[in-house]
Design a protein that fits this description.
By secondary structure, the protein is mostly helical. It is built from one helix and no strands.
């Protein structure tokens, strides 16, 4: 009986050892699975973090690009505005110059017309002077002639009287 009891106890102990070993094995397997799950979870978390960082970086890049494009657009617009302003200024200046040129031409025309009128007046005055002079000369000649004639008549009269 004792032998039997020992054998039974031994078997029970062996069973317990087997059960403990199985439980330990099961625990190891469970722990390993949990570790693998943790690793998978960690990997997933890391990937998500990387994706998030990547998306964030892409967003930043897009934002920078948009900002740069806006800045370029602003500059271009500013440049175009400046060009238009310069063009308007040039056009205005050209118009003013043309107006000044026109005014100068008109003034020159007036001056030329005035000079021509003065020349005509001078010519008329000269012609009048010439006429007057001629008339005066004619009058002088006439007077002289008359004087000469009177002298002649006097002479003749004197001669007649002497005779």
């Amino acid at each position: 009986e004792e032998e039997e009891e020992r054998v039974v106890r031994k078997e029970e102990e062996e069973e317990e050892v087997v059960i403990v070993e199985e439980e330990e094995e099961e625990e190891r397997v469970v722990r390993k699975e949990e570790e693998e799950e943790e690793v998978v979870i960690i990997v997933i978390i890391v990937r998500k973090e990387e994706e998030r960082k990547k998306k964030k970086k892409e967003l930043l890049e897009r934002k920078k690009k948009r900002k740069r494009l806006l800045l370029l657009k602003k500059r271009r617009k500013k440049k175009e505005l400046l060009e238009r302003k310069k063009k308007r200024k040039r056009k205005k200046k050209k118009k003013e110059l043309l107006e000044r040129l026109l005014l100068l031409e008109e003034e020159e025309e007036r001056v030329v017309r005035k000079e021509e009128e003065e020349e005509e007046i001078v010519i008329i005055v000269l012609e009048r002077k010439k006429k007057r002079k001629r008339l005066s000369l004619l009058r002088k000649k006439k007077k002289k002639k008359e004087l000469l004639e009177r002298k002649k008549k006097k002479k003749e009269l004197l001669e007649r009287k002497k005779k």
